[in-house]
# Entry
Amino acid sequence: MTHVMACIDGSPQAAAVCDCSAWASKRLDAPLTLLHVLDRQQYPVSGDLSGIIGLGSREFLLQELATLDEKRAKLALEEGRMMLDSARQRAISAGVAQPECRQRHGDLVESLRDLQDETRLLVIGRQGEDSGDAIQHIGSQLENVIRTMQRPILVAPADFSAPQSVMLAFDGSATSRKGVEMLAGSPLFKGMPIHLVMVAADTADNQAQLENARGVLTAAGFNVEIAIRAGEVEPTLHAYQAEHGIDLLVMGAYGHSRIRQFFVGSTTTNMIRTTSTPLLLLR
Amino acid sequence: MLQSINQNWFSNIRGDVLSGLVVALALIPEAIAFSIIAGVDPRVGLYASFCIAVVIAFVGGRPGMISAATGAMALLMVTLVREHGLQYLLAATLLCGLLQIGAGYLRLGSLMRFVSRSVVTGFVNALAILIFMAQLPELTDVTWHVYAMTAAGLGIIYLFPYVPKLGKVLPSPLVCILSMTAVAMYFGLDIRTVADMGDLPDTLPVFLWPEVPLTFETLAIIFPYSAALAVVGLLESLMTATIVDDLTDTGSDKNRECKGQGVSNIVSGLFGGMAGCAMIGQSVINVKSGGRTRLSTLIAGVVLLLMVVFLSDWVGQIPMAALVAVMIMVSIGTFSWDSLRNLKRYPLSTNIVMVVTVVVVVFTHNLAYGVLAGVLLAAMFFANKVGHYLHIGSELDAACNQRTYRVVGQVFFSSSDKFTGAFDFKEALGKVTIDLSRAHFWDITAVAALDKVVIKFRREGTEVEVLGLNEASATIVDRFGVHDKPEAIDKLMSH
# Structure
């Protein structure tokens, strides 16, 4: 529960992930771990369609497959090392004292789950290396990662620059009240102005809740602005963000089941897709 | 959840579809050949292969493994079919499925750890020999045409892959069957074809309850067969799962596989198919052709049925000689040729276990007996070997006229005679000390041997003192609680 874990791969986002995690590591004063996962499922399988088995076919096939895997794994291991090395250089030049590099075999989601106990904050890019160039596309594994992890996740945008102000999407739910407490207790945003934004009807009840949250944050020494806006969640948040030049957004992630998401869609997925600033997701 | 569905089904679509096709083409001759071994219409084996492949794709524990009607199972059914008919076979298939599901819930899959590698090798070799022997009736009392066609078929199967370009994309068993059928039809040869062996499917399989009286007598007839089918089916399936695990370097859920085999056999029985299990040869072909996920198994089953139902007139024209050639290839591919080379390298006891497994199977035509014999023999050799880990040293203290025996090692049924024999009762002594603090007493035989030694000394008028008996006999207790407490085993082994 101590490390900032940064997921490094060969995607164009890796540099931003690296910068973003270096920033977080310095703010939190937590050691930075750069993680690269070697997932063999991603290797293509080639087949011999002759459909015969002859003398010693089984032994031969095992040899052949093992040799093939060995070659690919060696190459991938080497490539991963290089990615990690350059990420390490980048993190050091960004001022992180001793970034640690780790490489693991297996599935990304499983590996992150295994490392969850030592993770304080996970930093991951919006897209992986297989995602192609589509701008509005989010990586195939991202949602699974977010749903699996019980830790805050910082989704890095394509270009990262150190944020100056923060906006928290507040909806009065238990999750977002807990989010407020987490922000109040964390050194990550110390000294930055925080905007508490609620997309809801402007009722006395909602006002009271916002005031209450403001109280918590002010007590922790933050400079807090509050606002209630009516309208669709996503465009309203974006509009507010653009208006005030806010460069980091904090929100709760995937409050609903996959079944609901299938029919209704997910605010979290949409926000990840449309935002161009770093996004901190709280579980 | 979604991700695992994706992983298990759609992570390798191209490879799985192609390999599924290759496997489907190879399953047709096998299903027909195994039906003929069992003595039923080819229809029964083909329906079984379809049902089992499709159902196991969803419920099995090993993605990418191919299950269908198999030779190992067909051989067990021969007498049941001959004496009681098809309906009893269907009932036995249902019961076999139930037994396998039970085995899955009782987690009997973990019993596979008692099956040593040499027994597995023996099983595989015996299976290959049985498949080969089952082809011999097709090759006796026939005209020279059949021999010529079988030889030509084998030639095509093994040489066609060397044809540039085409060889790597067309499965050579298919080429063999097509060309042999064409030759037989063109020359109008009077040789046996698949249609002569019984009915082929002309419709999709339909649900039917076996027409057997639901009495105790029926149960008494089918139970021995069902039990043997269940055991052999699980053995072959779990062994094949291990082979596929090794080839693909991925894991499988063995208990789920047991239950899955049960469910697929029940479905097969209800749709007029015979019992089946995983197939070593086909699974290797599947992996070799690039199949990795459940999709390959499903495609194999569906394509098999579609081809057979819509092409049944053509399938009926396939000469048996072509099928024999394919089956000879399967038996050659199944046999572990490495095991012959290893005979020189491996210790004699290992070789004996392997050979005994093979011999017992070939004589009884029942793989379960072979495995049982192999496992028992392997256990005996192991007990014998561990029995050597016993050393008894002694020193004489002449001044006091007493001797101290120090026992180090394992004392149990196989080493208790050695234990008793190490004491010199003829020596006239005032006192004997037996130090057991570095020995392990594993069973009651060991304790009895110690009692005997003590009594013998006392009869000679020697006083006996036994040291460290409590520590030594701690191993007799059946449960040490080792699973809950890792330190328990340290404590046990340290004294």
Q: What stands out?
A: Chain B is about 65% helix and 10% strand. The first helix of chain B runs from residue 2 to 9.
